[in-house]
């Protein structure tokens, strides 16, 4: 039921993402396109429920997008995952709000998750060229984090503070935020110098 919080307000977002990928123009690349330094965040505060959904190119969080094979790369992936597994600290949620994580989900090819198959009927990849071409298509690794919180005192959540996200992942220069809260819906670009948004 709670998953509907994000599904309804952002139902049109996948269409915008699809167009950005189709056009691939420099002008249209801002929403949904894979752009290094730029992450996307959907935030919904509805009653006691707070839902945050972060999508970022892996480059912003770990410094590369290829599969982690070296010990150093694996350590970077593990460190980023550990930081993402502590959303209260990452999003600097005030203790007074009493927010507890009710669910969280992290997905990325770098975490060993398989990328979503675009062609389910592609079982006939017996020729090495076809398989290599299909893998090359997924060079732009993304990291997806989805958090749901239950907040005892949601009125204490007047702001969404993204300062810690920028400090933890300094390669992230901008976060495109879709924010829905008691005062309505807004789209805003957060940066390290303007990282606090009002709900």
From TrEMBL:
Region (Disordered): 106-141
Keyword Lipid biosynthesis: no
Biased composition (Basic and acidic residues): 132-141
This protein's record includes keyword Transmembrane: no
Top-rank taxon, per record: Bacteria
Signal peptide from the UniProt entry: 1-20
Keywords assigned: Signal
Name of a matching Pfam family: ZrgA
InterPro entries reported for this sequence: ZrgA-like
Record-given protein name: Zinc-binding protein
């Amino acid at each position: 039921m709670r998953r509907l919080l994000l599904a309804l307000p952002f139902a049109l977002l996948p269409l915008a993402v699809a167009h950005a990928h189709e056009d691939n123009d420099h002008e249209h690349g801002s929403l949904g396109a894979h752009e290094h330094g730029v992450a996307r965040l959907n935030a919904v505060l509805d009653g006691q429920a707070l839902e945050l959904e972060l999508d970022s190119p892996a480059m912003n969080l770990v410094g590369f997008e290829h599969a982690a094979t070296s010990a150093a790369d694996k350590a970077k992936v593990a460190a980023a995952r550990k930081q993402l597994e502590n959303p209260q600290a990452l999003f600097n949620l005030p203790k007074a709000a009493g927010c507890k994580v009710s669910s969280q989900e992290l997905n990325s090819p770098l975490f060993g998750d398989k990328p979503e198959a675009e062609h389910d009927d592609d079982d006939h990849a017996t020729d090495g060229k076809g398989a290599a071409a299909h893998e090359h298509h997924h060079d732009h690794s993304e990291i997806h984090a989805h958090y749901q919180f239950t907040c005892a005192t949601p009125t204490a959540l007047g702001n969404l503070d993204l300062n810690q996200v920028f400090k933890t992942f300094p390669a992230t220069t901008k976060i495109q935020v879709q924010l829905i809260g008691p005062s309505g819906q807004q789209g805003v670009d957060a940066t390290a110098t303007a990282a606090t948004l009002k709900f």
